[in-house]
Amino acid sequence: MKEINRIGVFTSGGDAPGMNAAIRAVVRASLFHKLEVVGIYRGYAGMIEGSFIKMNSHSVSNIIQRGGTILKTARSDEFRTREGRKKAYENLVENNIDALVAIGGDGTFSGAHVFYQEYGMPVIGIPGTIDNDLYGTDFTIGFDTAINTAIDAIDKIRDTADSHDRLFFVEVMGRDAGMIAIRSGIAGGAEAILVPEWKTDIDQLISILQRGWQKHKSSSIVVIAEGDQSGGAFKVAEKVKARFNHYDTRVSILGHIQRGGNPSCNDRVMASRLGVAAVEALTRGRSDEMVGIIHNEIKFTPLEKAIKYHQGINKDYMQMIEILAGY
Prior knowledge:
By secondary structure, the protein is of the alpha/beta class. The chain folds into 2 domains: 6-142 and 263-308, Rossmann fold, CATH 3.40.50.450; 145-259, Phosphofructokinase domain (Rossmann fold). Helix content is 42%, strand content 18%. The protein has 11 helices and 11 strands. It has helices at 19-32, 43-49, 82-94, 106-119, 143-164, 179-187, 202-214, 233-243, 265-283, 303-308, 315-324; strands spanning 6-11, 36-40, 52-55, 99-104, 123-127, 166-172, 192-194, 220-225, 248-253, 289-294, 297-302. The chain has a 7-stranded mixed β-sheet with strand order 3-2-1-4-5-10-11, sandwiched between helices.
């Protein structure tokens, strides 16, 4: 087993609330185990540029409650090349970095897996993405905060929808996965939810809205994931309005507010658990794996498997949505 003395930690891809809590846990767990820890700015881009900073306990004071990431994040086309990865490796060696903790989603883990295969650099991934689409963990860092942000917005939209007899199409994040839409839609009492994983049936949607109108519903809300096959909230709204104009129709795009804000208690605790587990895994010789939580227990999944498979949406949810809509 390779001896580890200095760990590098970085965040990559889209930011997620709770990333700072994970950074804090990695730094303090490393120090607890008498290891040095280096922060790498701007993910793989910073690794190639040699943008490193030695971190101590004070470096991560007062950040557990902050959204975003103090180490910044970026996507790097150069790291996709062998030349770029060679530069990154040489910089790590020059700075005596023995192992890595990568905080991010499937793109981050794809890069980490290739890097491990080419150079044997020990790496553990921590799942940080609001999409909650990674295989090998029940939830990812940032998801709980994102859905609570979405629910808060949907609740406020419901107030104005009721006041004006309006039909709102609310678009939430989820280019390839509909987990945010499903959870926030159910919790927000949406009449219908459209996600990338399920084919959109405009006829069925209109039928649902028509039944609600006939039962004198004063408002309706349809939650749509941005990656829905129909093309998003504006296109769905246009199609529906052309055939069903009983309501005053509005579209609301929640956008990047779902990425920001103070992380929830659940995200802070989960990020702390995963950060400590990632460091301890490296000290025990584990590598090329993602640390996750399944049924409230720490579990490890090979990075290759974590990025190859995705969490699917429970079919029961779709039936439950129709039942709870009150038709």
